[in-house]
Amino acid sequence: MSSLQIFDHQGAPVRHGKAKVNDVRLHYMTAGTGAPLLLLHGVPKTSTYWYRIFPLLTSHFTLIAPDIRGFGDSEKPIGGYDMATIATDLAELMTSLGHDTFFVAGEDWGAAFAYAVAATNRQRVKKLSYGEMLLPGFGIEKWSFLNKENVESVHWSWHVAFFFLREIPEMLIRGKEEIFWTSWMKNETYDPSAISNVAAADWIRSASGPGGLRGIFEVYRAHFVNQELVLGWSKDKLTIPVLALSSAYFMGDEPLRQMENVAADIRFVELEHCGHSMALEQPQRVAEELINFFASSHSDY
What we know:
By secondary structure, the protein is α/β, with parallel strands linked by helices. The protein has helices at residues 54-57, 83-96, 109-120, 140-143, 148-151, 159-164, 168-173, 177-187, 197-208, 214-221, 223-233, 254-262, 278-281, 283-294, and strands at 15-21, 24-32, 35-40, 61-66, 102-107, 125-131, 238-247, 263-271.
């Protein structure tokens, strides 16, 4: 269990739980009152990614922040890392917690999973916040190319092809998790100090444990399955309201273009002086945008 303790707006510790769903045991945190909001972390992070934003949102929403399969204190099975399977995990988790309908927000791969949940549960997901991610089939491939434009940018995604390789990343990173993951995550920020030692230590703990690297790399190795899934889902665009949330330093207006491929009703917000880890670099601003977006209509609750 993480040593990073997280609190709600009243200073009370969040509640932890585990649920067996879709043949995998997921760890999750929950706190707050109001409409349910599912928060999904990216790679190589865990649910503790949201520790700065939890107390800013719990007076408005019932927050549910799980560790995705393969991450944190959730089980790390051999397979099931494609977007459809993970979306099923998360939808079943919300069912098990009694939430028939809900909001969903994610950053990085958490945003891709959030889109997958919305695309496969169209009667249940009422709004989607999609932050700092390129979808398979709509751009993640282009950003990983070795060319001058990418190398000179702030967003060259060289790791996409590297993580796709079988066994090679494990061989090179195992035993060096702290220096590799800390350096990689800080390099994608506008303010490297936003990746605190206590938060990084939890993600490194997860990556260093038994099976800890599996989920990180298998998410990337499911690329061609995910590509087919996304291209199929995109033929029927989402009609729910979508917030495309982005950082000026890293992805710019790309999340808007991503959502234009898959959704019809989009609001776009770009955060200045911010890099890829938005909820850590600009927690107050991210919280404000999520509150403004999700709390604007609670007629279903």
